[in-house]
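Entry 12.
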Amino acid sequence: MTNAFVDDLSNFVSTLEGFKSTSFQWISLALSLPGFDENVIFFGFEARQLYPTLVAKTPRLPQNRQALQTEYNRLTELWRLLGDEAEYCLQKAIALTTIQNQPVLITAFLQGKSLSRVFRKSFRSPSEDLLALAVETGRTLRRIVDRTAMRLEVGEEIRSEFPEMVAEYKRIYTPPRHEVQALDDLVGEVERLALQGEHKILIQGDFWHGNMLRSSQHGQLMLMDWQYARWSKDVSLDLYMFLLAGALAAVPKRFMDGPAESKAQAAIAVLRAWNKRLIPAYLHAFGQPQQYVKLPLRAGMLACCVENAVRISLDRNSDKPRDLIWKFMFSGLLDWHN
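Predicted 3D structure (tokens):
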């Protein structure tokens, strides 16, 4: 981004309530790999401050505005629904604007330690700290979704896109016959369970330790990155994504850069080991919802694999090799027994 863009960003922030007399220095950071489908992040520092005050996110392609619009809308809704509790579990959306034809989402900066760093070793060598994190995460998720739960109005429908995701999965990966049957059975299970839901909840959509940090101010878990958030009658995606992502992070180092199939098998071995203690403790901490629904463990993990395997394809019309890990996770979890 040019200096002119940064100047315009500063000028816009100076028009916002609470920042009119504040000047900022902006430091940019590309998010993830420097591809054209990624975002650029700007950290806004006030004079003589060690930590940023604001974060500005802009996509490399202006047509990717929808993801920022979704994140802004969901954060705004969450702050309204959670009330005073919001500041203890998520960042605050400050503004969504356009600068030099680029959509820009501005949020408050969250100061804390990333769980990816804090628990990097613990995921590979399960400890009491990791067990405690799983329990805390389950309780945090339950607290947030319960606060968003709203009874469906007469005639209101929350449409699931899962059948379309399964169709895309079949198109991309051309699974064998037994997997096609498993996919069809999973669609039926998801749809039958959804009929029982009388409330809608706001799920984060990308609920894993990489999107969490431990607040330096109050020590609680904070959730970041709400671009995949959506209303649903089913909490399964958030509930089980934490386990799958954690297991992938926990595979031995020798599998990290190896074939996707080997890494998936190693992650499933981690899940089986966790199923003796960590997974039951995590699910118990979350509890059994009464107002909305959740899939059983096996079905929930399979559904997560399907969505993650096709997400990039559906969002960006791009079949990326990194999605193969989810295909092999799905295949390996078919023989899981709850």
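Annotation: DSSP finds 13 helices and eleven strands in the chain. The chain has two domains: 3-109, 113-333.
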